[in-house]
Specification:
With 115 residues, the protein is α+β, with helices and mostly antiparallel strands. Helix content is 45%, strand content 22%. The protein contains five helices and four strands; from the N terminus they run E-H-H-H-E-E-H-E-H. The chain has a four-stranded antiparallel sheet with strand order 2-3-1-4, sandwiched between helices. The relative contact order is 0.25.
């Protein structure tokens, strides 16, 4: 049997003022805290093993109030429900199979727009 790489999906996530007030030091630290809160909530909902198998990773975004994360395709439903149930709420803007197409979709949105 052939060994294949797991397919990944890339999510553009918009975060609001709730995360900005908690993390006033730097945007990098704020992005890491968002990733940590997503992983923590996912492990509360689905367990530690499922959280590790989903392999959520942070990918930096150039736009303000937006992060890009990647996860395995098999666990995309778990991650989307985790993002919907997190407090303060996060909004998923786009989901894509490649970073190139995700960034192309994000360029259409003006940088000053708050969705």
């Amino acid at each position: 049997m052939l060994k294949r790489r797991a397919k990944r999906r890339y999510l553009a996530i918009l975060y609001g003022v709730g995360f900005q007030h908690r993390n006033s030091s730097s945007s990098s630290r704020g992005e890491l805290s968002i990733l940590h809160s997503i992983k923590k909530r996912n492990s509360e909902l689905f367990g530690h093993i499922t959280t590790e198998l989903s392999s959520v990773r942070l990918i930096r975004s150039q736009q303000k109030n937006m992060i890009i994360i990647s996860c395995c395709l098999k666990y995309i439903d778990n991650i989307l429900s985790t993002i919907a149930l997190i407090d303060p709420p996060l909004v998923t803007i786009f989901i894509s199979g490649t970073l190139k197409s995700l960034r192309r979709h994000l360029q259409i949105i003006p940088p000053d727009t708050y969705l």
